[in-house]
Amino acid sequence: MESFALHSLSTSSFSLSSRASLFRRSKPIIKSPPSIHHNLKPSPSLPTLRSPSLLASKPFISSSHSSKPGKTHFPIQASKYEEPGTTLTPPPPLQGAKPIPFIISIAVGIAVRFFVPKPVEVTPQAWQLLAIFLSTIAGLILSPLPVGAWAFLGLTASIVTGTLSFPTAFGAFTNEVIWLIVISFFFARGFVKTGLGDRIATYFVKWLGKSTLGLSYGLTLSEALIAPAMPSTTARAGGVFLPIIQSLSLSGGSKSGDPSKRKLGSYLVMSQFQSSGNSSALFLTAAAQNLLCLKLAEEIGVIIPSPWVSWFMAASLPAFVCLLATPLVLYKLFPPETKDTPDAPAMATKKLENMGPITKNEFIMVGTMLLAVSLWVFGDAFGIASVVTAMIGLSILLLLGVLDWDDCLSEKSAWDTLAWFSVLVGMAGQLTNLGIVNWMSGCVATTLQSYSLSWPVAFGVLQAAYFFIHYLFASQTGHVGALYSAFLAMNLAAGVPGVLAALALAYNTSLFGALTHYSSGQAAVYYGAGYVDLPDVFKVGFVMALVNAVIWAIVGSFWWKFLGLY
Questions:
Q1: What is the C-alpha to C-alpha distance for residues 196 and 239, in angstroms, rounded to an integer?
Q2: Which regions span the lipid bilayer (predicted)?
Q3: Largest Cα–Cα distance of the chain, in whole Å?
C-alpha cells in the first residue's frame, strides 16, 4: 500500500513534467520580452485584444516611436495574447483509467475465463473467481487506476457476475489483521508527530557518529530499536531518518544532485535503505506486510503459535548478522569519500538541546508503545489478541491528546490499505475455500516430483523465484496479496515444513523492498532524496540481495534447525 502509493506519486510527477516539456516543444511560440517600455511599434493584433484586465486599463502605448516623459506604461506579458494558430493551453490530463493498462488487465481475466480450458477438478464458480482475481492482480501491476480503485472494481465484478455474494465479498473487511495494519499506521504518525523517533535516532548519532561508518551503524541500530513500535518502513524513512541524513550530509558539504553527494550522503542513504529491510524482517510489527503474511498463512492452514515471539526468535540471528554486515559491506562496495565525521556528535548534541527536554506527549508515546509491545509478546497468555492491543494503544493516544481524530482521518494510506487489502485477502480466502489453491499446489507438487527434487532444493528454488519476481512489483503488500498464498501452497506441496515456509516467504517480503527504486515505499523516499543514482540503486540492490540471501541461508538454516523449525 504505502509503497504503491508513493511509487504512483513519483511516477505521476514524472509524467506531468514530461508532458509539460513535450508541450513546450510542440509548436513554435513567438517570444516576447516580459515588458516593453520604449520604441514599441504598434502590433496590428493589439486592437483585437479582449482581455478584461487590459480593457480596464488606461492607454499604455504611444503612437510615436519614443515615450514621452510622464507617460504611463503597463508591462505587456507574452502570455496576454496568442498569435494566430498558436495554442498556449496544455492538453487536459487524462481522466479515468489508462486505456492500454486497462485493456491488458481486462484481457487477462477474459482469456482465463473463456479461452483457457477449465480443469475438471475445478468448479465453474472457482474458475470464474480465479479469472477475476488474475485480472485484479494484473491491474495492481499495470496500474490502470489507483490500487484501491482497481481493487474495488474487482470486488464489484465478483458480485455483479454472481461469483460471490455481497456478505462473502465484504467478509474480509472485518479481518483482525487488516485492522491491526490500519492502526499501525496511526502509531507511526504518533512517532512522527511527537518527534520521539527523531529524538531516538539523534541520540544514536551522538553516541556513534564520530566516523561515517559509526554514523551508519548508529542510524541502522536506532531504526531496529524503534521498528517494532513504528510499523511503517516508509514512515520511518521519510519521517525520521532521511531528514537526519540530509542534515548530516549538508553539514559535511555533501549536496543532493551534485558530485559532492558521494562525500557522505550517498553512502548514508544507501546504507539506511539496504538496512531497512532487515529491520522490518526482525519484528512481526515492524512492517504492515508481515502481519498480512501470517494472516494468509492462517487461511491455508499454517498456524504459527505465539506469533510475535516465534517471528522474532526465528528472525533474530540472521537479521542481526545482516544489520551488522550491511554498513560494512557497503563501506567497501559503495564507499563514502568522507571517512570521519568528528562534527556529527556535536551537531546531534546541539539538535537535542534545541529539541529541549522530553515532552509529555513523548512520554505518553513511550509508555503506550511499551505497553503495546509487552501485550504483543505476552498477550496470548491473558487472552488479549494483537488487534485488541493495538486498539487499546490507539485509544490511549486519542484520550490523552497525542493524536486527534483528524490525524487518523488524514492518514489516507491506512484507509486505502483497508479497502484494497480486504479485497485481496477476501478473494484469496475464497480461492482457497473453492479449491483453487489445492489444485495449483497439486500441479506444482506433481511437477517437482517429476524432477525428483528434495524439499530443501524445492524450498530454495521457490524462495528465489518469489524474491526476484518482485522486480515486476511496485509494492511489497501488493506482492504479498498476489503471490504469497500461491507460493506457500507450492512449498507445502513440495514437502517443506509449513511454519518454515510461511516465515521464510514473509522475511523475503521485507528483504526485497530494497531491490529497486520502486520496490517499496521507503525505496521511493530514499531515491527521491537525490543522493543515489539509478544504476547504483539497481547494482547495489542486486548485490545486497545476494549478500542477504547467503547470510539468511547459511545462518538461518543452522538457527532454524536449532529452533526445531525443521
A1: 11
A2: 99-116, 128-153, 173-192, 308-331, 361-378, 384-405, 417-441, 453-474, 486-507, 540-560
A3: 98
Is residue 454 within 8 A of residue 496, CB to CB? The reply is no
- What is the spatial distance between Cα 433 and Cα 122, in angstroms, rounded to a whole number? 12
Separation CA 163–CA 467 (nearest Å)? 32
Instruction: In whole angstroms, give the CA distance from residue 91 to residue 481.
Output: 37
Task: Give the position of cell 474480509.
Answer: 172
What DSSP designation does 45 have?
A: T
Helix 412-433 with 2-26: angle, nearest 10 deg = 110
Q: How does pLDDT run across 170-222, given as a tens digit for each residue?
A: 988 988 878 877 887 788 788 888 988 888 888 888 898 889 999 999 999 99
Measure CA 362 to chain center: 26
Specify the DSSP class assigned to residue 529: T
CA angle 150, 394, 421 (to 5 degrees): 15
Please, how many CA atoms are within 13 Å of residue 494, restricted to the half-sphere of its CB?
26
Are 509 and 288 in contact by the 8 Å Cβ rule? The answer is no
Length of the chain: 566
Handedness of CA 46, 51, 55, 57 (dihedral sign): negative
Among all chains, which residue has been given the C-alpha cell 503471490? Answer: 483
pLDDT tens by residue, 343-361:
889 888 999 999 999 999 9
Asked if 402 and 193 count as a contact pair (C-beta separation under 8 A), the reply is yes
Q: What's the one-letter identity of residue 158?
A: S
DSSP string, 44-103: TTGGG---HHHHHSPP---SSSSPPTT-------GGG---TT---SPPPPP-SS-HHHHH
Total Cβ atoms within 10 A of residue 91:
10
* Residue in the block written with cell 480466502: 429
Q: How far apart are the first and last CA of the chain?
A: 33
Q: How many CB atoms lie within 10 A of CB 309?
A: 15
**pTM beyond 0.70:** no
